[in-house]
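A brief tutorial aside. Many learners find it easier to grasp structure tokens once they have seen a single protein encoded end to end. The record that follows does exactly this for Protein RER1. Read the sequence first, then the structure, and try to relate runs of similar tokens to stretches of the chain.
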Amino acid sequence: MNVDNGQMPPPTGLPVQATLLQRKLQALLDSTTPYPAPRWGFTAFMLVLYCIRVFFAQGWYIVTYALGIYLLNLFLAFLTPKFDPATEDSLDNAGPEEDGPGLPTKGNDEFRPFIRRLPEFKFWMSATRSIFLALFCSLFRFFDVPVFWPILLMYFLILFTMTMRRQIRHMIKFKYVPWNFGKKKYSGGKSDSK
């Protein structure tokens, strides 16, 4: 231990290395935040890679089904507002920690922005992690449970159709659109009247 100059040596060991690795990973994730198209392109590439792996290996249908259900769950959370207008009456009776901005339900209601239950970056991060986990599981025969895959596919399609129909009805009933393209854009600032 070198204490000649009054300084302690830098800490070493596994916890320190894990912290450094975590900081580097967080810095990498922070640098990708402003680029959603390349991030989603990478995730789509990984999903295609996984599908090719499952197609040629002819297995891991349970893993694929679980991945599909999880991605559907993430997608629904992405489309759903953080504060559901259907439960607005229950929020009026709730405490201030549960109260939040809601969507306008009448023509004379004030504008309230659409806040997602699951933000886009967290959606991307969770989807990418789940695809990596599915790829990892496809490396082991233990996870290749023999099933009749057409039944799983049919059940997933029925589940997808029913949940999306319910979500679309909810969007129509409360008149909200969970994406930005196609919406009116207003310019702020001074008007150019002369």
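Self-check: The longest helix spans residues 149-174. If you spotted this yourself, you are ready for the next section.
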